[in-house]
Amino acid sequence: MGAFGLNASIMDASNLAWKMGLVAQKKAKLQALMSTYSYERRDHACRIIETSGEYLRFVCATDLQIANVRNLGTDSGADNNGVGPDVKADQSLTGGVANDAPKTKEEQQQEDLKFLRGFFGKNGQFLLGVDAPFGPSVLTPPQLSSEDGNKPRPFKINHGVRAPNPRVCFSTEETGYLYDQMTGAATFHLVIFASTLSATIRGRVSTFAASLLKADGFYQKFGGAERFNIILVVKHLPWETDAILSTPELRILQQHATVVYDDRAPDEDAHTTWGANHTEGGLAVVRPDLWVGTTVLPDEVDSLFQYFSGFLLPVAA
């Protein structure tokens, strides 16, 4: 699939580099963090091989089975010819696969179109690099549904997916994308979706702001501004936001957070793209490699402490 394998290698490096860096600097737990690399990237690598194999078999008009690479390292799953018995090209997308029955040119064209529609319908987002989720781990804990408890779900997106990158405004004169504010080789981005900072959300954000000053809170315990990048996404104009953040309970965010303005149409703004809860607000932890780690309500600072305690080490006092 062209340079897709090369792109995957870049994503491998992106996944591994920040983890190795934190461990080498004694800022993260070796076993907890490094064990996630193979777990997260192996499935992606296997899918690349399977997806590329399926497409190449269509191009080459062959029904040769795709090598089973998912079992390598345990039982290879390969027969004497080195062909995996379990993983095959999708038989519902037969396209250019050869068979004994001769076809007219029109029939072959229809089968080819059927394959292409099915193949890209199934793999299109994966080929773009956005449909490559990671399974549950210390970095991407399982996400509870609304039915699992009484608290509202902060976002519709799931843990372990690549963070959406909607267009936002940085000031009255500058616009860009959310990723533009997510920089740093080993920085965790705490993205707070605060909508219009209604009374409920303002109270939750105030609790989060107060936690930034606590010596035993997650922010100070695990590195402060060196480790965390706070982004506040609001549905207000700059002068309105400045007035709200100037209040005593939120003033600390003016020093520690970058404010971005979600000014696009409601059907394409950042809150909609993320599926953010406009009534309760939401906080998403975006990992250095730009995958969503976990999501909480903005005032669930104890949950943030528990999450980061799973793999980070406290900074020296």
Task: Explain this structure.
This protein is of the alpha/beta class. The chain has two domains: 4-127, no CATH class; 146-309, Glutaredoxin. 38% of the residues lie in helices and 11% in strands. The chain is built from nine helices and seven strands. A five-stranded mixed β-sheet has the order 5-4-3-6-7. Helix 1 (4-24) runs antiparallel to helix 2. The longest helix is centred in the N-terminal third of the chain and has 30 residues, at 30-59. The N and C termini lie far apart (50 Å).
For this entry, give a set of tags.
five-stranded mixed beta sheet; alpha/beta; Glutaredoxin; 317 residues; 2 domains; two-stranded antiparallel sheet
SSE topology:
Blueprint: H1 4-24, H2 30-59, H3 105-127, E1 167-169, E2 175-177, E3 188-195, H4 199-211, H5 218-221, E4 228-234, H6 238-245, H7 251-256, E5 257-261, H8 270-274, E6 282-286, E7 292-296, H9 301-309
Parallel strand pairs: 3-4, 4-5
Antiparallel strand pairs: 1-2, 3-6, 6-7
